[in-house]
């Protein structure tokens, strides 16, 4: 009899623990979902008001329709260190994660097509070695001050990038640009002090003023041939840039601030005076 009672008590204890775990888990999920403000059609995360350090938003059926991380949805959150976005996310809105200074990891599926203005501004701890394969556009200031990202290429399908998109990204050492990009915008790699090499595709038609300003470790540049407009002085304060090869292009100002230049090949170029 005593043995039966003991076994019964043990069984009831186990059931109680399992029920508690289940209820706690449900409550945790409910709390997480209740901390998210969604649009009426549930395709946009408008605001996050929680305090979780790690968020995996890809696990919940309730978020399967989310396509957009809204404007400043997670802005200035000082708790999040890692986040997994919903699997079908296509757009990361303007300022979506601006000022998230504790954010170290973000997992984006290849469905992401657009990264908005200032989306990751000042996420100084964020580590990222690649961008989504499906990406098509990156707006201005998107990654300003993300000093720990170590990108080596811009995805194949990217056609537009805004000004200052990667300014102060000091951990980028080499970068290959998308062949479908036609403009390198102004200040795009402003003071990326550890940038050493850039693979510039033949399709580039314009290189903006100060686009490589202060890239003090850049040593050699081979620019596209034919019909590439070089605006102002893209290479100002690139003090270690020794070799520049420019053929059959148009530029408006001489190369200033290139104290280390040894070779500047200007074969068949057009110089426009202002």
Protein architecture, described:
- The protein has 274 residues and is an alpha/beta fold.
- The chain has a domain at 1-34.
- The protein has one helix at residues 2-34; strands at 36-38, 44-48, 54-56, 68-69, 82-84, 91-92, 105-107, 114-115, 137-138, 160-161, 174-176, 183-184, 197-199, 206-207, 220-222, 229-230, 243-247, 250-251, 263-267, 270-271.
- The chain has a 7-stranded mixed sheet with strand order 1-2-4-6-8-9-10.
- A hairpin with a 5-residue loop joins strand 1 and strand 2 (44-48).
- The model is unreliable at 17-29 and 269-273 (pLDDT under 50).
Question: Characteristics of this structure?
Answer:
274 residues, alpha/beta, 20 strands, disordered C terminus
User: What is the tally of beta strands?
Assistant: 20
Sum up the overall morphology in one term. Answer: elongated
Give the helices and strands as they follow along the chain. Answer: HEEEEEEEEEEEEEEEEEEEE
* Biggest sheet character: 7 strands, mixed
From the N-terminal CA to the C-terminal CA, the straight-line distance is 103 Å
Number of helices: 1
Class from helix and strand fractions: alpha/beta
Average predicted confidence as pLDDT: 85
Widest sheet, order of strands = 1-2-4-6-8-9-10
Helix content: 10-25%
Radius of gyration: 25 Å
What percentage of the residues does DSSP assign to strands (E)? 15-25%
């Amino acid at each position: 009899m005593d043995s039966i009672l003991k076994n019964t008590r043990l069984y009831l204890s186990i059931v109680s623990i399992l029920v508690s775990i289940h209820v706690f888990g449900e409550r945790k999920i409910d709390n997480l979902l209740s901390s998210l403000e969604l649009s009426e059609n549930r395709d946009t995360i408008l605001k996050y008001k929680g305090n979780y350090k790690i968020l995996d938003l890809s696990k919940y059926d309730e978020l399967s329709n989310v396509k957009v991380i809204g404007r400043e949805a997670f802005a200035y959150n000082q708790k999040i260190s890692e986040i997994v976005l919903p699997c079908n996310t296509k757009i990361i809105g303007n300022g979506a994660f601006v000022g998230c200074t504790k954010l170290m990891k973000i997992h984006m599926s290849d469905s992401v097509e657009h990264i908005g203005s200032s989306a990751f501004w000042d996420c100084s701890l964020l580590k990222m070695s690649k961008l989504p394969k499906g990406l098509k556009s990156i707006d201005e200031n998107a990654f300003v001050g993300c000093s720990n990202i170590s990108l080596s290429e811009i995805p194949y399908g990217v056609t537009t990038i805004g000004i200052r998109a990667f300014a102060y990204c000091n951990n980028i050492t080499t970068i290959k640009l998308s062949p479908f990009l036609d403009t390198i915008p102004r200040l795009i790699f402003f003071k990326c002090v550890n940038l050493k090499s850039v693979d510039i595709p033949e399709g580039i038609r314009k290189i903006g003023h100060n686009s490589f300003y202060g890239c003090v470790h850049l040593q050699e540049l081979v620019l596209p041939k034919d019909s590439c407009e070089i605006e102002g002085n893209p290479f100002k304060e690139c003090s270690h840039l020794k070799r520049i090869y420019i053929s059959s292009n148009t530029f408006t100002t001489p190369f200033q601030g290139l104290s280390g230049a040894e070779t500047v090949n200007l074969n068949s170029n057009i110089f426009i005076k202002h």
